[in-house]
Structure to design on (73 residues):
């Protein structure tokens, strides 16, 4: 499937066909992770649950920073 890079405001982007978005379960406003490897781009829907878990873990690690540092010894 071919897509064209288009000018969108001050940026550039691509339009992902509706059929592809439906197959992936992605809708407007969802976040995707973009990776580049050897000249290939990969878009992967971001797992909202994982993002929430990482945010909670970050808060917990900050709150218990001293205890975690002691446990790590």
């Amino acid at each position: 499937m071919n897509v064209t890079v288009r000018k969108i405001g001050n940026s550039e982007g691509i339009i992902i066909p509706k059929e592809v978005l439906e197959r992936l379960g992605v809708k407007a406003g969802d976040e995707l992770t973009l990776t580049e490897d050897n000249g290939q781009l990969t878009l992967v829907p971001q797992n909202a649950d994982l993002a929430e878990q990482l945010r909670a873990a970050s808060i917990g690690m900050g709150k218990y920073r001293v205890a975690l540092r002691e446990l790590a010894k």
About this structure: Residues 25 and 45 are 8 Å apart (CA to CA).
